[in-house]
Design brief:
alpha/beta; Rossmann fold; 9 helices; 35% helix
């Protein structure tokens, strides 16, 4: 399987739905090029299933582009688990005013994304970061975003824990989901609230513009200190992904030394 870019002659023409011109405006030619790249290089490298080529516009490109309706003006956006650039690339094409970081752990996918960014002339608007999603917002100097988007990356409870530290207080999570979104939300609402998401609701993007609107869970990171962050401040918190943080060896020794002089008190911890 070659990583070489196909020539223009080898890229098939795909019928462009009329609504694409409305969504992408002057960037419609770039959206057409991206769709053709998905149908060729994307399939060759295993990023897109071969059976998806006939429905790339409706099921993938337009489905992601309408997400622009839920993104605030001028937002800094992180696309978590970007894969073939969905939804980040269509969103960037539809919204020239936003800046997008595509976060993807797999090298071959990052290579494809970097080629796409160059081919579409998006170097000033879109960047590619290889790594695990939460690492983009870890540490005192970690970057925080105004919006985080994800397309079927993980169960909602897990996704909420991953994205929370990546967002600024008041930042918005936009999770694209399928037809079971209301059931998923019912199961995860309590956990999302505990993590620090409020309000949480479901919105439909593209209604009246595309045949099947895109269902999106929209959640706002609370502006106050979350329970997990409060525990972190006391040195006994949780990781960004919900797993317990191990105490350092020094903290453990200090605890044992204190324990020799003071009675042991009961302490409950979440697992």
């Amino acid at each position: 399987m070659s990583d070489a870019e196909p020539t223009e002659a080898s890229i098939p023409e795909l019928p462009v739905p009329p609504v694409a011109a409305e969504l992408f405006g002057s960037r419609l030619p770039a959206a057409e090029t991206y769709t053709r790249l998905l149908a060729t290089v994307g399939v060759e490298r295993g990023l897109i299933g071969p059976r998806e080529t006939g429905r790339l516009w409706e099921r993938h490109v337009l489905n992601c582009a309408v997400l622009a309706e839920a993104v605030p003006d001028g937002a800094d956006v992180v696309d978590v688990g970007s894969g073939a650039g969905l939804p980040g690339i269509p969103l960037a094409l539809a919204r020239p005013d936003v800046r997008v970081v595509l976060v993807e752990p797999m090298e071959r996918r990052c290579r494809f994304l970097q080629e796409v960014v160059v081919a579409l002339g998006l170097e000033d608007q879109v960047s590619v970061q290889r790594g695990r999603a939460p690492d983009a917002g870890i540490g005192p100097d970690g970057r925080r975003f105004g919006v985080a988007v994800a397309r079927a990356v993980a169960p909602l409870e897990r996704l909420g824990a991953i994205l929370l530290p990546m967002l600024q207080p008041g930042g918005v999570m936009l999770a694209m989901r399928g037809s079971r979104i209301l059931e998923e939300l019912q199961d995860a609402r309590g956990s999302l609230g505990t993590q620090g998401w409020h309000p949480v609701d479901v919105v439909e993007c593209g209604e009246g513009r595309v045949d099947e609107p895109t269902r999106v869970l929209r959640a706002v990171r609370a502006t106050g200190l979350t329970r997990a962050e409060s525990r972190k401040g006391r040195g006994d918190g949780e990781r960004h992904d919900g797993r317990q943080v191990r105490r350092t060896a020094r903290e453990s020794r200090r605890s044992r030394e204190v324990g020799r002089d003071q009675p042991t008190r009961g302490q409950s911890r979440s697992t």
